[in-house]
């Protein structure tokens, strides 16, 4: 199961996810230094830890590494929500409480997501019998599941401690 990222890990991963390309420690450092004072070795250690945990892969580029996200932020968030929900002794009550906390915009996003994963609930007919349904599109990018750069085939977030 995924482990929630620490604050600095999240700050680093945010850049890796946003830039959506291989990045160096120096690039991440320079961007982080716009917000806080931080040492190169600190960023290097965090990125190495993220690599050890399976959140990023790295390739040698000269005397440095270039790091790429293994999964998307959406997959990470989904895995955290699933982990929290699975720990409940009453999953239905946990969902009701969670939905009750949602804003109108979040509830609309939930309805959109439900239409994507279960089109029969939206009143939209599915594919004709015998035809494959195809992979659902990613709600953010519109890409088919697993097509986003760096996504593992199963779209799951990496497990902590790998």
Short description:
The protein is mostly helical. 46% of the residues lie in helices and 7% in strands. Strands 1-2 form a two-stranded antiparallel sheet.
Write the layout of secondary structure elements.
Elements: H1 7-19, H2 25-32, H3 40-53, E1 56-61, E2 64-69, H4 73-86, H5 91-101, H6 104-117
Helix pairs in contact: 2-3
Structure description:
The protein is mainly alpha-helical and 162 residues long. The chain is 46% helix and 7% strand. Helix 2 (25-32) packs across helix 3. It is elongated, with a radius of gyration of 19 Å. The N and C termini lie close together (11 Å).
**Mean residue pLDDT:** 80
Q: Please list the strands of the largest sheet in the order they lie side by side.
A: 1-2
**Percent helix among the residues?**
40-55%
Distance between the termini: 11 Å
Describe the structure using short key phrases.
two-stranded antiparallel ribbon; disordered C terminus; 6 helices; mainly alpha; elongated; about 160 residues
């Amino acid at each position: 199961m995924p482990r929630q990222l620490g604050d600095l890990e999240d700050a680093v991963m945010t850049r890796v996810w946003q830039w959506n390309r291989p990045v160096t420690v120096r690039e991440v450092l320079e961007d982080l230094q716009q917000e806080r004072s931080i040492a190169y070795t600190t960023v290097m250690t965090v990125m190495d830890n993220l690599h050890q945990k399976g959140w990023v892969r790295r390739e040698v580029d000269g005397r440095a590494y270039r790091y790429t996200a293994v999964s998307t932020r959406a997959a990470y968030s989904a895995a955290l929500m699933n982990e929290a929900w699975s720990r409940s002794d009453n999953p239905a009550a946990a969902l009701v409480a969670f939905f009750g906390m949602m804003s109108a915009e979040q509830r609309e996003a939930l309805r959109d997501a439900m239409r994507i994963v279960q089109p029969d609930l939206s009143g939209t007919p599915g594919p004709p019998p015998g035809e494959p349904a195809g992979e659902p599109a990613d709600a953010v990018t519109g890409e088919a599941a697993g097509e986003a750069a760096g996504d593992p085939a199963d779209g799951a977030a990496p497990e902590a401690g790998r």
